[in-house]
Specification:
Layout: E1 4-7, H1 11-20, H2 29-38, E2 43-51, E3 54-66, E4 69-79, H3 85-99, E5 104-108, H4 115-123, E6 127-128, E7 140-145, H5 151-154, H6 159-169, E8 174-179, H7 193-203, E9 207-214, E10 222-231, E11 235-243, H8 245-250, H9 252-266, E12 271-273, H10 284-289, E13 292-295, E14 300-303, H11 306-322, H12 430-443, H13 450-473
Parallel strand pairs: 4-5, 11-12
Antiparallel strand pairs: 1-2, 2-3, 3-4, 5-14, 6-14, 7-12, 7-13, 8-9, 9-10, 10-11
Organism: Kocuria gwangalliensis
Biased composition (Low complexity): 435-448
Region (Disordered): 319-450
């Protein structure tokens, strides 16, 4: 019997289905809303794949442009049974191509991994977005069983980690508070309220948002970090997290994480999906608490038009030969990155508060991204014919004084030692160096290296042949 793809426009019905069927928290209606709020180019559609009157799969489709193509992405796609996955994907392929004119279908199914399923995906024409080297394990995620009471967590932590968590909450002036939509306290601690408030309203009651702050004596309260859990009735995930360097030094990051896990226990949440165990940013607390490291399928792609696979291979070839493209505006994946408050927003802080100032230690959305203080601007040196006292200071040890009437590019008072140029660079062969030097002597410019030109030509031919071969295979 054929499958049909049907949209769902009722939030209560959708979230109830996710909770009853054990769907990933990333499938909640509010997460889709948060994604579209984070990037105006993203549109969201919730769809169910049905066979007659029975739903065998469902997911949130994120539609957005990427490299002049339209991508249709289904994160944490849920299917009733693993053997139904290929059939569900086939229905989504037609839907993405016909309704959204997509060039590629990108999926990350929330399905148990088995060798037969991997073989079925490969035969259906799907390819991993990130290739796995031979002998390496596939993508995995940590699963933390929360238990019923706080002691179920603390007894699984090492003594050092537990002591660090306790010490982090005993620091003088450190406070932990739970934040909900329309909470005005965010405006006074260095967090931008407008965007965060919109996201909290989108996710609504299916989340736990905690903020840690510090207030030294005689100073204004500032944020040290935050974390945001999103959960269904049974499982949760760490949706966004960010801490300053000072929070990590004090141990506030681990303390806030353990506090959040206790909050989830109180809501009768049983499991936490804690992300990639091989990630350098994975928390020590989560590593110690995790009792299971589950292998997952990861992200797979299917080209809906032949132009996409050719363009993808051409881009890889161009990257290998010419390097990365110049930086372009990217999608704002870090939806909680500190940003200026909106003009006219009722939740925006007053002018002069920490939240309204760019340089007042905003909380990082990425815990691995340490914000560096801006380099102080150097004052311009006054230009004069002669310095006081009539002494002339050398601008640079170049063997020549600056020409009269011309400005020197050297820093005043800084002596630059003369560095001798080697006769032959270490990366250049002797024959090529001799040819380059002789060319420079005769024409005034170094001649092109024939060996490098031939090597580049061979590389272009090799990559072009590989592009045609891969396109034919896919």
């Amino acid at each position: 019997m054929s499958l049909s793809v049907n949209p769902c426009d009722n939030r209560k019905t959708w979230d109830a289905r996710v909770g009853v069927t054990g769907g990933n928290p990333q499938l909640l209606w509010g997460i889709g809303e948060a994604e579209s709020l984070a990037d105006e180019q993203i549109s969201v559609e919730r769809v169910m794949v049905d066979r007659a009157d029975q739903t065998i799969g469902y997911g949130q489709l994120l539609i957005y442009p990427e490299d002049k193509h339209t991508v249709v992405e289904a994160k944490s796609l849920h299917v009733k049974s693993p053997h139904e996955l290929v059939g569900v994907l086939g229905a989504l392929q037609d839907h993405a191509r016909e309704k959204h004119h997509g060039a590629v279908l990108r999926v990350s199914p929330d399905t148990a991994v088995n060798p037969q399923l991997l073989s079925d995906l490969d035969e259906a024409g799907y390819r991993r977005r990130q290739k796995i080297r031979k002998g390496e394990a596939g993508p995995r995620e940590l699963i933390v069983r929360l238990g019923e009471v706080e002691s179920d967590l603390s007894k699984r932590l090492s003594s050092g980690t537990l002591e660090r968590c306790r010490a982090g909450l005993k620091v003088a002036g450190v406070k932990v508070r739970r934040v909900s939509a329309n909470t005005q306290s965010l405006a006074n601690v260095g967090l931008r309220t407008a965007h965060i408030d919109d996201l909290l309203k989108a996710v609504d009651q299916d989340s736990v948002f905690l903020v840690a702050t510090e207030q030294a004596e005689g100073e204004q309260e500032t944020a040290l970090g935050y974390l945001w859990f999103v959960h269904t009735g049974e499982s949760a995930m760490l949706y966004r997290v960010g801490f300053t360097d000072r929070a990590r030094q004090l141990g506030v990051d681990d303390a806030l994480l353990l506090t959040g896990l206790v909050q989830l226990q109180q809501r009768r949440v049983h499991n936490l999906v804690a992300g990639d165990p091989d990630s350098e940013s994975a928390s020590v607390v989560l590593r110690e608490l995790a009792e299971d490291r589950r292998e997952i399928l990861g992200v797979w792609e299917y080209p809906l038009v032949s132009a996409y696979q050719l363009a993808g291979r051409a881009e890889k070839t161009r990257h290998k030969i010419f390097g990365e493209r110049s930086p372009q505006k990217k999608r704002r994946l870090k939806v909680l990155a500190a940003q200026p408050a909106r003009e006219g927003d009722p939740a925006a802080p007053e002018t002069g508060s920490l939240a309204a100032q760019e340089a007042n230690n905003p909380v990082d959305a990425d815990p691995d991204l340490a914000r560096q203080p801006a380099a102080p601007k150097q004052k311009k040196q006054p230009t004069s014919a002669e310095p006081a006292g009539g002494d002339v200071t050398a601008t640079a040890d170049t063997g020549e004084l600056p020409a009269k009437g011309k400005k020197s590019r050297g820093l005043p008072g800084v002596s630059v030692p003369r560095v001798p140029t080697p006769a032959r660079p270490s990366f250049m062969k002797k024959d090529d160096a001799d040819a380059a030097s002789s060319g420079a002597d005769s024409t005034g410019a170094a001649a092109a290296e024939p060996g490098r030109v031939r090597g580049l030509a061979r590389r272009i031919v090799h990559e072009g042949t590989a592009a045609i071969r891969d396109a034919a295979r896919w």
